[in-house]
Amino acid sequence: MRTEANSESPYGGPSVPKRPAGAPRFGRDDEFNALAAMYDGATHGRAGSAVLVGEFGMGKTALLEALSEYARRTAFAVVIAKGSGLETHLSGGVTRQLSDGLTRALGGAPLKSPLEERPRTEHDQTAALEGFLHLVREVAGRGPLLLAVDDIHLADAWSMRCLAYIRYRVTEYPVLIVLTSILGQTLTGEVSLLELAGCSPTIIKLAGLGVEETARLIASKSMTFTGKAVDCREATGGNPFLLNNLLARLAPGADVHTVGSPAVGEVLRARLRVYPAAAQLVRAVAILGEDAGFDRIAALAGVDERVAVEGVDTLVRLRLLTNTGVPAFTYSFVRHSVLQDIPLATRAVSHARAAKLLADADVPGKRVAAHLLEAHTISTPWGIDILRNTAWAAVFEGEEELAVRCLKRALTERMSPGKRVATTLQLSHAEYRIDPGTAMARVREAVGYIDTHRIATHTAMMMLLCLCSGTDNQLAVSAASLITARVSSGGPEATWPLQCMIYLAETGNSLTPAPLFSEDWTPGPDAEPELRRTHAALLALEVLRRGESAAEAVRHLSDALSDDQGQLFEQPYFFTLVTATLADEPALTDRLCRLLDSTDEPFDYHLRKGSMAALARGIALQSEGKLLRASVYYESLLRLFDERRATSACPIAVLAVAHLAEVYTDLGRPDEAETLLDGIDFDGTEQLFQHNYLLYARGKLRVATGDTQAGLEDLLDCGRRLERHGLAFPSFAAWRPLAVRAALILDRTELAVMLADADTTAADRWDTPRARGSAMAALALTREDEEAERLLHKAAELLETSPARLQLATTLAELGAARARRGHTEQAAADLRRAVELSTHCGARPLTRRASEELHTIQMTTKDTAHGLTRQEGRIAMMAARGLTNREIAETLHLTRRTVELHLSGAYRKLGITGRAELAAALTA
Length: 925
Known about the structure:
The protein is mostly helical.
């Protein structure tokens, strides 16, 4: 039992050498050295004790073996016993191992001893304990003794009592007692761990390997995973046993946090048998994951909640579970190992039960669906709707593969023909994002399931209502067209509602010209009132698209809104919202908003109940010039879309962004407008019809901030796209009046005249005060002073009869400036004061500032300068004399180029000169 050495200790053994080669590797140096330092005391006759504690698999046994080898090298007698779960209830099992080792150390053969089992009488117990003590002292009297028990927590009660008995009776002997135990293990029975090891033993807790040591361990086994040291340590806590098993199971490219080992699960299951219900609870926690509440764990494990609480407490102390409010595995590798140890059929049943528990507790559907996907061999017809709703959300959150898995799982259940058609079409939508060809084949498969006209029509309409983005809308229209062909044998009454929906979808979300709505598509005399209202709304829409009479559009829309109920207005189609507003009919707009407020949840995933009403109210308020109130509605909508990450995907979101950017520009908050537009993926929205309004809003912002050329390009691009779409209505996005002003600033007079004439023609055809007044004001800017003043005056009169307060303020500001140029200062001042009042009420600070400056100039220039010029004429003349071009002067003074030209002409006339070359001399004369 001893090795030879060069120098002797006081007890005949050699002095303690340096740490030998072969000591434990990978981060156990500190622990080993702390224990080795205790050997010196033992060799000098001082007894000591130490306890190694750590999680299962942390390397306690390996470290104890290294210490034993070290002890043998230093001439210690080494006696080691090992606790076993199979012997925990066998009295004297560990003591017999120790007594056998001690007897061998004395050179004798092991003999039967009363220490094998607990004696019956107290006298015999005392004799047995004294015999064991004598044996220990006899061995220690010959030299240092290492007395160790591995896994002391598994030792029997009598053996523990024997160890406790000798602990305080060998303090003057060279005895080193080392025990190992599982971290968190509570010793039960009559002896505690402190009584075994003394009141102040050296406690050494084995922690997991660090990242560096983990990397070294990985490198010693394989170079393939050396870059995954951090993930491997996180998944196992640096536990050497777990690390080795993880590396054995890890495949190249695999996600470390999803790997498990059934062998580890089996070992864990065997070790947990000694704890009541622990194995069942561990399985329940593994199955439930993030939803592992105590009540659900107990229900899934099939135990009383009190038992579950006590069991979880034990598992937390054993460091298998985290010490948190919701029990969870400390290491992901252990959880997946437990799952892989569960037979597939049992696991599927457990996931199905977990899904039902969570569904009954109203847990979010995505987490319920995760269990339903795992329960793929178990029939769960109650979960079909959960799977479909989860898939619906997943598509719009960019998780198409999850959506496909959910829908394929749903289709394994028994369901009605109508639900199978709808689910198959929903699957085609998810697949469309991945493989359009497969998706269209899936549509044809769905059409094959149709057995009634009602199912076909309802399903196609739901698809049209739900799929709103550009590419999705194309799929919806294609599917609806196939279904229409399938049900055409049912006659017009069967196909007409579906044809209406296809028309709306192509009109609202397509970039290609939508088919004209024919009045031949008329409901029959026995048609439902709802169908007739829908027909009226479509007629109003078609009148608006063609830009024909607003009065006719209002008449049709009044018929559509004749009842307080109507399914049409649950649909998120832009034109049905704004027809009343664009026709300057506030009463109809208010009726529409109230109707939208009363409808059910929208079919569109991106929307919530009230979203469409908020948009309609925002548009109505903006059209009346109530900018701040309109911005509140738009901002609330965008918060919703931002939460759903749909700001660049949903047409309604894009429209809200564009309107809010326009409002911010009018409010004098260009930085906020720019930030808003910078957050939009213009390339991604280009497939949406609403992209036109986005271009208009950006063009308006650019012109307002001095980037006139880029702004004009945006406005013209908006116009070209609207023309390709077949939209002749002049005021959907009032791009022409703004483009006229931009063209004049850039000295593109011919373009300005052409745009103004075209807008006037369109406005006359639509024939509302707003449209005609705005077009006439833009036309006035392209004319000479006298005609300009006349046109602006008439435009102001028209706008006075409309709700368009901001357009009226703009026109009055331009009218005041025109009258001031012609010397009509009193009338000009009155116009400008009204412009200031209206723009202030609207919150349009840039317009207020400009009108105020014009008014101040008039007030300060009622007297001529020394040269007979007004102050404005003198200022412009001085800038021209210094060499500034008309465009530079216009941009500096926030005037149009035409205004600058008119002021210069007046200055030339008063100074008696013919042109710019004579200005400098005339002004200094």
